[in-house]
Amino acid sequence: MGGDGVASEDASHNHQVLKVLGALKEASHQLQRTSSTTDSSNSSIKALLDLEFLSKSILSSDRQLSGLSSHLSDLKNLIQTQEISKPRTGLRSFLANRVRAQEISRVANSIESEIQAWIDRENVANLTKTLEEWSDEESLLTQLSQLRNRLALGFDIDLQNTLLKSRLISELESLLCRTDVSKRVREMVAYSLKEVVLFNKDVFIGEIRVGQIIKALVSIGSFCALEVLKSLIKAIKSPLVDELESCGGINKIINALDSADMATKIMAVDCLMEVGYYGRKEAIEAMLNGGLIKKLVYLQRSELSDLEQGKSDEFVGVEKNRRRRKISVLEGNPFASCVARFAVQLEIGEGLRQREKRAFKQEILKRIREASISDAEAATIIAEVLWGSSP
Predict the structure, then answer these.
(1) Distance between CA 92 and CA 63 in Å, rounded?
(2) Which tens digit of pLDDT belongs to each residue from 180-193?
(3) Quick count: other Cβ atoms within 10 Å of Cβ 45?
(4) Which regions form coiled coils (predicted)?
């Protein structure tokens, strides 16, 4: 009972601190935009001075906010110095005023940075705790969304250090790999991990267990999971494709081409195109041996066949409208020339040597002939591969 009371008091104190810091941050931000006016008539300065007095007792109880208290005192001294200075005219006075204005803006920026660092520490700590013992799915998803939005604002060294010192990344990984958790939660966790990696890939790639994450993503196999995997392949390149091949993930992505969900099929194709671009010899062999060309030929054929035969309800109506609609859908066909697109990815990609590219191109042509249902179909697709297609 006593423990619950202490926790409640801590939460109330943090809420009070957060409220004051939010007001301070907003006033600091506004001051940086209006720093040409540096006397107490400036509404942003007045708000900061009022909050400086109000926040003394609140900030003094948190050692992590000692720097903020110092910045607020510096700001107060700068403004007081500005006000007691005798107004003068001339170039020297103008330059002195500009210097003081810039110094006030600099201190205001430091105040805003200190506040954001404190908020980030609190949010990371709270999310880490939620991940450890969550029970409310909506609350967890809200906090994950807040993390992604914060990371999307761009690089921040304080936030990076906070993430590195926390257990957040390991907790995200653990939740992603749990099969007893809903797919919705695992997908949102996957998006969050992706944003952490992209925040500074040179640092955070070394902080994640790439193999475990890949296994989790391919086991989910949804549009969202494949989208995250595609982003990670583009970020980490050949080393991630190597991990993907070694854990059997390539075959699972190929199997996603059979999904009943069109968006998932399209994302699986996009993912495989990235694998083709960055994959080394072993990865490309795994793709071909996994039946990729046969499946791509089928997708290319089935989409075009449906359009040509007018099987879709989209093509019901007078002949003129039918042709117009057919052209429209053909232009947006996600699997158009997908075999040739894959061949081009290998040709222009980074993972293969030149002689390997030539050998794989011949292998692709052979498999096209085996997968085609007619000489005409084989000739059409082979022509696209030989003459090239935009990836």
Answers:
(1) 41
(2) 999 999 999 999 99
(3) 25
(4) none
Q: What's the token pair of residue 11?
A: 């939460």
Are 73 and 67 contacting, i.e. CB atoms less than 8 angstroms apart?
A: no
Q: Which two tokens stand for residue 204?
A: 């955070």
- In angstroms, the CA 312 to CA 318 distance is 14
Q: Are 39 and 45 in contact (CB under 8 A)?
A: yes
What share of the chain has pLDDT > 70, as a percent?
Answer: 75
Complete DSSP assignment for 249-299 = HHHHHHHGGG-S-HHHHHHHHHHHHHHHHH--HHHHHHHHHTTHHHHHHHH
Q: Specify the pLDDT at position 50.
A: 65
**Which structure tokens are listed for 135?**
């029970």
Q: How far apart, in whole angstroms, are the C-alpha atoms of residue 386 and residue 79?
A: 73
The Cα 137–Cα 42 span in angstroms is: 45
In angstroms, rounded to a whole number, what is the distance separating the alpha carbons of residues 213 and 199? 17
pTM of the model: 0.80
Q: If DSSP codes are grouped into helix, strand and coil, which group holds residue 24? A: helix
199 close to 161: Cβ distance less than 8 angstroms? no
Tokens standing for residue 196: 């952490």
Look at residue 351 and tell me whether its pLDDT is greater than 60.
Answer: yes
Give the Cα-Cα-Cα angle 260, 326, 259 (nearest 5 degrees): 10
Tokens of residue 180, six digits = 């007893």
Taking the C-alpha atoms of residue 229 and residue 271, their distance in angstroms, rounded to an integer, is: 7
Among 255, 181, 246, 176, smallest CA distance to 213 is for: 176
Tokens of 85: 């200075």
Q: What is the pLDDT of residues 145-172, one digit of tens each?
A: 999 999 999 999 999 999 999 999 999 9
pLDDT over 70 at 387, yes or no? yes
Number of Cβ atoms within 10 Å of the Cβ of 343: 28
Instruction: Give CA–CA dist 177/213, Å, rounded.
Output: 7
Residue 376 DSSP code: H
